[in-house]
Amino acid sequence: MNFPSSHPVLIRKPGLVLSITAASGVTISIGSSIQLLALFQHYRHPTYLQLDHLGLYVVNGRGLSPMAQGLLGQFQKANIRIVKDRDSNATGVLHRQHLTVPVTHVTRILKDSLRPPHEAWCWLVKRGDVASLLGMDYSSYLLSHLLQV
């Protein structure tokens, strides 16, 4: 199926809803307990982790299996916590199972929803620590072309 990106489209099937917004993204609802958002991300001045990509976001993951794997599954059910440093509210340590990674509390422009890009507080992981947090190099999650499988 091909859908125009110039105007919104809503498709309803039993247990499935696809909502396509004009030139922005696709919301996929599976039953009442899984909702995913796919957005085409394009950055005018990208940094290391801001390459043009198709972003997949879990809006509602209650129905995802604990057996989910890959980038989606490894953080969905993970026990992740951040402990702020005693000396500063701007730094801390991210704990994920046996792994610890230093983080910094910063504001960034986020493109993580159908809303326009917006500024939000987030915990920033240093570039050198990304691979250890993901369990492999960031580039392992990227494809050179969107249709590559």
Low-confidence stretches: none
Shape designation:
globular
| β-strand number | 9
**Strand order of the main beta sheet, please?**
1-2-3-4-5
User: Based on helices, strands and strand pairing, what is the structural class?
Assistant: mainly beta
Computed over alpha carbons, the radius of gyration is 17 Å
What does this structure look like?
- With 149 residues, the protein is mostly beta strands.
- It contains two helices and nine strands; from the N terminus they run βββββαββββα.
- Strands 1-2-3-4-5 form a five-stranded antiparallel β-sheet, with no helix packed on it. It has a four-stranded antiparallel β-sheet with strand order 6-7-8-9.
- The mean pLDDT is 80.
The gist of it:
This protein is mainly beta and 149 residues long. The protein is built from 2 helices and 9 strands; from the N terminus they run βββββαββββα. The radius of gyration is 17 Å and the shape is globular.
